[in-house]
Amino acid sequence: MSTATEVAATDQADRTVPAPGSRRRVVEREKRRSSVLTVIVWITLIYFLVPLVWLFLSSTKNNADLFTTFGLWFGTAFRLFENIGSLFVFQDGIFTSWLANTVLYSVVSAVGAAVLATMCGFALAKYHFRGRNIVFAVILGAIMVPLTALALPTYLLFSAANLTDSVWAIILPSLVSPFGVYLMRVYAADSVDDSLMEAARIDGAGELAIFSRIALRLLAPGIVTVLLFQLVATWNNYFLPLIMLNTPSLYPVTVGLASWQASAAAGGGAQVLFSTVLTGSLVSIVPLIIAFLFLQRYWQSGLTTGGVKG
Amino acid sequence: MTTTVPAKPVTAVPAKHHRHPAVQRAQTRAAWILVTPFLVVFFAMFIVPLAYSAYLSTFTSQLVGGEVFSGIANYTRALNDPSFWEGLGRVALFLFIQVPIMLIAALFFALALDSARVRGGGTVRLLIFLPYAVPSVVAALMWGYLYGADFGLITQIFEGLGLSAPNLLNPSNVLGSTMNIVCWEFIGYNMIIMYAALRSVSADIYEAAEIDGAGQFRIAWSIKIPAIRQAIILTIIFSIIGSFQLFAEPNLLYNLAPNAIGNDFSPNLYAFNIAFKNQDVNYAAAIAFLLGLIIMIISYVVQTLINRKERSA
Q: A202, A280, B91, B203: most buried, per Cβ within 10 A?
């Protein structure tokens, strides 16, 4: 545990980096491109992109073309919109419910987890109180406990309380983000100035007003980082909803797609399902990819200044 | 910065002990108001489930007589269970093969992009990171089809070249195929962590080395990598935790290759199958608990080892 504390400590030391150095670097950078390195890196990019390109192209094909035409080019007919149409009407349009469930689970969990982590992390960074070190030590220890090792115990508890197969069974466990608390603690220690809080106190502001009116604004980039990471974690979560839920209409997209993939693999005759599964996969990853593209400024600044940099 | 940054004790936030008691009291109260909501949820969703499953793991369900207290019997059973060890063995292979490949690749990309010698570096960074936005379920599903014989791209390419395609989903290849999926998903994520750390290293340090005539590889090896050692440790720990959690990938590949992936492919898959196929929650609780314990011990040992090595170096 002491080593993890060290991570936080060096974090602070590292971040007192003089800005001018990096600016100078940018200027000098312009004249030192390497063609060899550029070519190597761009060639390896193929590895990361081919599966996604293949997924897109496969979503534009009908089942016959899927089996008979080359994977990295279009089929004889462009069927993307037909595939999307049939995806959303398949099994009475259950895919729409899955998408809505995923959005509900991940947004509520991310907002809740970010709120809890911000409050807790701020208090741990900025106040001295008895028990602070114990609380922080417990949270650091909790980071080491893997999510899926916790999922089964959580299921057993929910099952004893008859709470499985409900929305709460997914949202409540996802509200806890020990790593989020750790991030916010590091971020708050660095971005909220003690003297600023002191000045507000002299002006007569209460402690909670200082938190809500002054600190929250300064913590915003860190909050967005925690929010995004929890959003991705819940959006991508598979194990917890798989064990918690029995009712297909409560499934998130991950569990739903996996169930379709299983029946596509099992029913050799039900080949129609292949293009539905592929189109569903494409549709399910588009929102997150768009979110990442548009919010990259936030998660990158969050990572660089407050974050996971260690 | 060839020497490591001395770790300041984290408690060294400006001391305020000389403060007026009323002010101190108001601050303590505010602190607890802010900390309590998290702690309540943490207690209910973290401590209680672990305690409850620890409790469950000390019972054994029997055909006659229901649940009987059995002490550590489930744990001794797990330690003598070849399936549990097989799963752990596969995870160990993951740790020694997949994790190093993934992290070295991530480090390579991070250093390449940080050196600013790559044209279009910003685009490259984003595209490598993109797979992280893809749920592991979709990644496993996609790669499963890419590997497959039906309309798999890899098979198509091999046949197009007139070669016989390898069966990537047979028992001897499926572990490697799984490793590839995990690499694809997480190289970008680890790269971003390392890249962010590299960007916060002061350029002055290695500009001086450059002026002294040090080559890029020397700078990367002797200055940059030591400077981001904490970030690298973080990625190692996260990868260890991730490897032990392996579930979605084998769970989905199982549908495509039921003969290659048994119900004990990874410890997590095994615990899942015990709980839901064999309906033996007590034993499943013991395995989940044991697994969590093993991960914590290994992460702790790895951290200590790396830190001690650094200190003696």
A: A280
